[in-house]
TrEMBL record:
<feature type="transmembrane region" description="Helical">
    <location>
        <begin position="111"/>
        <end position="132"/>
    </location>
</feature>
<dbReference type="GO" id="GO:0005886">
    <property type="term" value="C:plasma membrane"/>
</dbReference>
<feature type="transmembrane region" description="Helical">
    <location>
        <begin position="417"/>
        <end position="436"/>
    </location>
</feature>
<dbReference type="InterPro" id="IPR050586">
    <property type="entry name" value="CPA3_Na-H_Antiporter_D"/>
</dbReference>
<feature type="transmembrane region" description="Helical">
    <location>
        <begin position="6"/>
        <end position="25"/>
    </location>
</feature>
<feature type="transmembrane region" description="Helical">
    <location>
        <begin position="138"/>
        <end position="156"/>
    </location>
</feature>
<dbReference type="GO" id="GO:0042773">
    <property type="term" value="P:ATP synthesis coupled electron transport"/>
</dbReference>
<keyword id="KW-0472">Membrane</keyword>
<feature type="transmembrane region" description="Helical">
    <location>
        <begin position="376"/>
        <end position="397"/>
    </location>
</feature>
<keyword id="KW-0812">Transmembrane</keyword>
<feature type="domain" description="NADH:quinone oxidoreductase/Mrp antiporter transmembrane">
    <location>
        <begin position="133"/>
        <end position="427"/>
    </location>
</feature>
<protein>
    <submittedName>
        <fullName>Monovalent cation/H+ antiporter subunit D family protein</fullName>
    </submittedName>
</protein>
<keyword id="KW-1003">Cell membrane</keyword>
<feature type="transmembrane region" description="Helical">
    <location>
        <begin position="341"/>
        <end position="364"/>
    </location>
</feature>
<dbReference type="Pfam" id="PF00361">
    <property type="entry name" value="Proton_antipo_M"/>
</dbReference>
<feature type="transmembrane region" description="Helical">
    <location>
        <begin position="457"/>
        <end position="478"/>
    </location>
</feature>
<keyword id="KW-1133">Transmembrane helix</keyword>
Amino acid sequence: MLGVHPGILIMLVLLISAFISPVLDQFKFKKFSFLATFVSGIVFVLSVLVIFRVNSIGVEYYNFGGWTPDKGIEFVFSELEALILLLVSGMFFIIYLYNQKKIREEISEHLRGWYFTLAFMLQASLIGLILTNDLFNMFVFIEISALTTVAIISINENKDTVFASIKYLFLTAVGSSSVLFSTGLIYLLTGYLNMELAGMELMEVAGMYPAATSMAMLFMFFGLAMKSALFPLHIWLPDAYYSAPTISTAIMAGLVGKAYIVVFIKVFYRVLPLSFFEQTNMSEIAIVMAGMAIIIGSLFAISQTKIKRMLAYSSVAQIGYIFLGITLATESSITGGFLHIVNHSIIKTLLFLTVGVIIIYTGAENIVDFKGIGKKYPLTMGLFALSALAMIGIPPLNGFISKWTIAIGTIEAEKPLYLIIIILSSLLNAVYYLPIIIQAFFGGDDDLEYDWEFKRLGFKIILPMLTLGVLILIIGIFPAKPINYINRIVSILI
């Protein structure tokens, strides 16, 4: 199309859209939600073209300005990048479809033009993070995504959002500094910022400079773990998820953290020597942190009284599953971790969209207020129940498949303790999800009166949630294709 690679066209479409939004705002343009849906639809179609292109042509490299990889910025389009690009584009499209009249009223009308400028920039930075093959360019995209995320949290300028955004900004700045320091060390060691060239050079020099290589690895791990909210570096996450508008929370929970985890995979499997990671016992530390995240995140979730905070702590536990799979470093565990990135993105986005509807239409923020709500909103709470069961890991839903694959990875890695942790965590998931489902459908009297007026949901709000529900079922019932695709990615990584 236009002689430009569809992946590059995606960046152009998003950046142009980001710059024209404030201009349109000056002309009293009111259809920003439609514009966002239209733009994200184009981006999604282009992402589909990218994945077809990778499947037919193979890995492609795009060098900006014709510079060679050792001097210029390079994007890479392999099966890994194509899959995550499709995930990010698809989820943004679904979230924008969901952003109908009553939902978008969460954001003040005079700020909506700027909101979508920030959202387009955030989407562009996340896609840039996924596609770039350059370490410094990766840092630049990390900074853009951090600043735009802060802005979409604090867009409503109330006390909670400002507090959450300052907390996020401070902690994410620590993480960014750590990534930058590590990038500098890698450049000093290798003379390259290109990931593949730096990775090949590090294989040669890591043994000669073990202390510097270990420092680079440590700072990169700390920075990306902070960005991904791996326990105990997750402390920015609950306040950010709780206070942000619904679509901001859905974007953060479903996509932002996942992009950093994908960067973690690219850096630790393509740049920094995996064998060195294991020799320095950092892999053991990462595995222990992941195990603690799974258990402690679940325990914190049980103790919450606000539904959005409960889902936030549930995310801490699920991020632990993903890191466990990645850092156990067996073929099954990495496949499971990768699949859980996709599955958790779908499941957690659906959970926040359903809860967002309930909060906006009924004002029920406390878990106890969900009593009987399933009788008024059966489809919405039915989808909540479906996604909660997937999160627990009930077969044949998609969450079961990824957890099962990670569990096989724990056996391959000869770490049965983590198999027990996975089983225990699933039971803990059931402890905080099942009572909500039971109370929503069977709690309260049939003639129970509420202090809110029932309003029927429009089809435009239901459709995106229903789409995510169908995806949960399809991936769970027919897992062979996604697993085979991810297996091809994993076979290249290890």
